[in-house]
Each structure stands twice: as structure tokens, then as C-alpha cells.
Design brief:
This protein is an alpha/beta fold. It contains eleven helices and 15 strands.
């Protein structure tokens, strides 16, 4: 049985990769941090399952990583741990550098210290943000990097230190240059999940308006569940190499919002430009009107806020997955853009409905207690 160690196992990608590897017959080990708040909801369904194990360590603590790597002695390591929010990197640049840059070095050194440098294969989760102020479209493995945020600069160090250890020590270590990949497990602060949740909440009368940044920003969005397969394929290749992981199809934030709201039963019309642009309700599904009587045509449900503009903003990310398709046999468009949006909105419509039902129960209970109906 092959053994895999996953950092960042509690995240979107880590949870999907865990499921994928368990189904492949792996013994899966994951690293989690000891903290005051322990978020495990994405992997809760896996705990207690045979061949799934969790260990405490931290990407900022080299000794803890050495201990876990030495104990598990994995055949494969997937380094998915990161401070992965671009906007947060402007607020916490030092922390981002410590985890996203030096953290990669700590993993590589842990493998060497434990004597696994010739037996353990390492996957590093890199990012399309490396291309930053893009110099060509679409972006491939040969496109020059121009990082445009503290997050991207930290990730660039991670990319180059992996390449250096591969060439200097003959280690099997690779980077997957991941373009935006989303899912129903995406964190709620990321723009796609922010949109799908808002569409569900506005449709069900639990939110009035969604505030976004640059609606014209272009992204190559894929489904995270498909992307973890490519991570695995990269480590099954005959020789270590770096690959772009993308769909090769590009859409704007505006398009994502239009698709999400449409699937929730609200057809939008966008008016104005720049900071004055608005998403206005053009049509409401009759079934939705019965659920939410407050929503009317002409209502403004999307506004642009300068608060969500970044000091430097990457506006045109578009990946070329040809190399992964041809050399690894990976299908980058297994899940289409429309299917991805549908999956996310359906999940959030159910989540919001459940939240609404729970809120109604609490409200009714409070009223009953106040009236002395129940004690």
C-alpha cells in the first residue's frame, strides 16, 4: 500500500485529494495545526475511516514537519498548505512569506533530513498568480512570470526552490501551476463562493445586495475535484516536471455572477461601467417569486465597491493545459464552467434553505418562551 502525506488537508483541495487517494487504495496522512479554532468540516466524513490519519504540525515549524515526515515516511507528499488569499497577503505579507515561501523549503528539507530524498515524490501547489501582470495569453509553462501581489511573490519562491532541489539533489519534486479552481467547498471569502452564496441568499430573501470588485477581471475557472486528479497524475509521470493545471477557457467575474444568479432564478442585466456598474434584476422565476416576495424587477442586487479593488490587480488569467493533456492524459474540461456554477449554487441554495429553517425554529422557540408556552 502506498502512503501519501497531505499538508493543507482541511482545505478544499486537501479534502478532495484525500477522497481521491483513499479510493486509489492509499494510506492517507494529513497535517493539521493546533489552533484555538479547528476547522475540519471538509474532512469530518473521512475521520474514522480506515487508512486515514491526522497529525499535528505547522508549516512555520520545521521540527514538527521533520517529526511527521520521519514517522510517516511517505511515498508521496502533496504540499497544499498555504495562506492562499491574495487580498489577505497585502494585509499579512510576512506571514504569507513564512508559510507560502519558506514553508516549501521546510518540506523539502524535512524529506532530505529523513533520508527520503530519493524515494519520496513531492507535489507543490503553485499558482497562476505567478503570471501576475501577464505578458502573454494564454499562459503556459514557458510564459514569463511577473508576480503582482505578496502572495504571488511568496509562491514564486516556492516554485523556484522546488526546481532548485530537483536539479541540485535529483529529487522527484514538481509544481502544478494551478489556475482558479472552485467548488462547493471553497472558502466563503473567495469571490466565486461569495457570489454563489449571495445568489442563494438574495433568492431566498436573506440578503439584499452583493458587493464585488472588478467585474471585468478574467479568470480560468475549473472544478477542484477534477484538478486533484491532475496533481496525482503529475507524481505518476516517468520524470519530474512542472505543469499548468487549467481548463483553457476564460470567463469574467461578471459572467460568473450572471450564471449564478440565473441558476438561482434571477436573470440580471448589467448597467453602467467601472465603479458605477450595477447588476439589476431583469426577470424573476415565478417559483422564486412565491418564496421571496420582497424581490422585484429593477432591484439592484450587485454593486461595485472600491473596497474590493486590490492595490495591484491581476485581470487576465487564462491557462493553456496542452502539456498536461498530452503528456499526462488529463481531461481539463471534464466539468464545464456552467456545470461548476450549477454545482456551487445548488449546494448553497440547500445550505441557505437549511439556515433559514433553523433560524425560523429558533425564532419560534424564542417567541414561545417569551409567551410562556414552553419552559
Amino acid at each position: 500500500m502506498r502512503t501519501a502525506l497531505i499538508t493543507g488537508i482541511t482545505g478544499q483541495d486537501g479534502s478532495y485529494l484525500s477522497e481521491f487517494l483513499l479510493d486509489k487504495g492509499y494510506d492517507v496522512h494529513g497535517i493539521i495545526r493546533r489552533s484555538s479554532v479547528d476547522f475540519r468540516e471538509r474532512i469530518a466524513h473521512l475521520e474514522g475511516r480506515p487508512h486515514f490519519h491526522l497529525h499535528y504540525a505547522d508549516m512555520g515549524d520545521s521540527m514538527s514537519l521533520v517529526k511527521v515526515v520521519g514517522m510517516v515516511r511517505p511515498d508521496e507528499i502533496y504540499n497544499l498548505a498555504a495562506q492562499s488569499h491574495v487580498q489577505v497577503s497585502f494585509d499579512s505579507p510576512e506571514y504569507t512569506a513564512n508559510i507560502d515561501a519558506t514553508g516549501v523549503l521546510r518540506i523539502l528539507e524535512a524529506v532530505r533530513v529523513c533520508g527520503l530524498d530519493q524515494t519520496c515524490r513531492i507535489y507543490q501547489a503553485s499558482t497562476s498568480e505567478l503570471y501576475g501582470k501577464v505578458e502573454e495569453v494564454p499562459q503556459s509553462e514557458t510564459t514569463p512570470f511577473h508576480p503582482y501581489s505578496p502572495y504571488a511573490v511568496a509562491k514564486l519562491y516556492g516554485f523556484w526552490i522546488v526546481k532548485e532541489y530537483r536539479e541540485a539533489y535529483g529529487m522527484y519534486c514538481c509544481s502544478g501551476i494551478l489556475f482558479n479552481h472552485e467548488s462547493e467547498r471553497r472558502g466563503e471569502t473567495f469571490v466565486t463562493r461569495k457570489i454563489s452564496l449571495a445568489a442563494a441568499r438574495i433568492a431566498q430573501g436573506m440578503q439584499d445586495c452583493l458587493y464585488l470588485g472588478n467585474l471585468s477581471s478574467m479568470r480560468d475557472w475549473g472544478y477542484a475535484k477534477d484538478y486533484v486528479e491532475c496533481m496525482w497524475l503529475i507524481l505518476q509521470n516517468d520524470h519530474p516536471d512542472d505543469f499548468v493545471i487549467a481548463t483553457g477557457v476564460q470567463h469574467s467575474v461578471r459572467e460568473f455572477a450572471y450564471q449564478a444568479f440565473s441558476h438561482a432564478g434571477i436573470v440580471l442585466e448589467f448597467r453602467g461601467e467601472g465603479l458605477d456598474e450595477q447588476g439589476v434584476v431583469k426577470y424573476i422565476d415565478p417559483k422564486l417569486s412565491a418564496v421571496n416576495t420582497k424581490l422585484s424587477t429593477g432591484d439592484v442586487v450587485i454593486r461595485v465597491s472600491p473596497d474590493f479593488y486590490r492595490p495591484t490587480d491581476v485581470v487576465n488569467l487564462w491557462g493553456d493545459p496542452s502539456k498536461a493533456r498530452e503528456q499526462l492524459g488529463w481531461n481539463p474540461t471534464k466539468t464545464s464552467f456552467e456545470q461548476l456554477v450549477t454545482i456551487m449554487v445548488d449546494s448553497d441554495m440547500a445550505k441557505v434553505a437549511a439556515e433559514g429553517a433553523a433560524m425560523k425554529v429558533r425564532t419560534n422557540l424564542a417567541e414561545y418562551l417569551e409567551k410562556g408556552i414552553v419552559k
